[in-house]
Amino acid sequence: MATIELSLFDWRAVEARSDLDRFYLVRDHLPDARLVQYLEVMRGQGRDDYPVPAMWNALLAGVVFQHPSSEALLRELGRNPAVRQACGFAVLPFQKKPLAQLLPDAATGRMTIVYAAPPAAHAAVPSSWNFSRFLANVIELEETLGMVTEMITTLREQLMEVLPEFGCHLGYDGKAIDSHSTGRISRTTGATSDPDADWGKHETSGVDARTGKSWNKIKSWFGYGVHLIADTQYEIPVAMHLTPASHAEQIQLRVMLKETFAETPELAERCRDFSADRGLDSAETKALLWDDYRIRPLIDTRELWREEKQHPDDDPGKPITRPLFPERVDTIVHTEKGSVHCICPHTGEQRDLAFQGFEADRNALKYRCPAAAYGLECQGRERCHQAGGVTPGEYGRIVRISLDDHDRRIFVPTPHGSPSWHRGYHRRSALERINNRIDNSFGFERHFIRGLAKMQTRVGLALAVMMAMALGHVKEGRIEQMRSLVQPIPATG
Fold this sequence. Notes:
This protein is α+β, with helices and mostly antiparallel strands and 493 residues long. It has 3 domains: 15-98 and 120-145, no CATH class; 164-182 and 195-202 and 215-300 and 416-493, 2-Layer Sandwich (Nucleotidyltransferase, domain 5), CATH 3.30.420.10; 315-413, no CATH class. The protein is 35% helix and 19% strand. It has 15 helices and 15 strands. It is elongated, with a radius of gyration of 31 Å. Residues 6-16 have low confidence and may be disordered.
């Protein structure tokens, strides 16, 4: 028999609050009153052995405490009276009344009432059937009325009230979530075990900086895609769409932008920049952000130019350049990334033009001659001025690039590669950390979910819990802990 020695220090002397406080934080700040009211209406006059608020709290506890399945949650409720009490179930074991039967007495022949032995007491925890029926009602409310994702909208507005800079820096990222299905088509039914899901493919490529060799990686999965907009400064979700895996991210992003800013116009007014990776590079998306909402797009640019690479004099080590003004013979060229250069007519040397900022009233980027800006000697200055048809003074030649007249995919208000572009784009890594929490903290790396409606409900609950926990921490003065999902709440908080 293993013996345990008593510790010198009692656990009650430690200043730490219960892990249930994280559940209370979500329960008290989640805007779920309307959803619970509808669940009460759906139950109607049926049996109320397990009250709707207690069942809903149990569902939230399963998300907060990261149970991989409803069965794991029910086992936890059965063995942990503290969790049962926090959810609203009876703490003491439940015992049914003994059944009465009318049986004849063998001695007298009269009918007498006989009470059978009472069944063993058991915890007042719903069965798997009870919980699955309740979960089906929640999924139905999300599928028909969008009540779970509606909480995300409400939490977004509440976070904007307590965090004045919430929404100033937004970003987008797509995430693949596998279905609990192999994706194989059954020979008998002609369909997969998850008919709502389909196959998706994500391709990435690049060049190894160490070896100089190009690489290409293709990931395919059967399931769904989560399209997520989040605040990249606070690392908190803002909006979410869930689609089958094959749906294009670029289209979903534009739909989400219009929908989110229509629901919360103040968010569009507050947002200053929007970041996304090069897979979302699109002239239509960048123009939508700037023209409609005055939000600076910080989206990496894809390299799509291929014609120059077929030329025998092409140097793979140098970026491809094209004339900025192809309608005339000029010395100004640009790359696909949007950097602007001049080529000296005398020496053939290529120099970077000095960026002078974005002129919002002209909707144009302003560049200056590098020789005049940096005090360089340029023997081809006069010929450069003649090619451009300008006669500048000592200030040097000015080149303005109007966004209305040039490729919107390449030229944006904040030029690609500038210091401010890099600062904003680097914040996009917040989306990767949020996706990591979705996988590891909320169990989407390994789950048992099939069906679009069920997946939508489950992902919506995870994001709503994440936002409610952040809101609770901020309101209680623990803004430094707003991103934490598992860290204990200090007793002094």
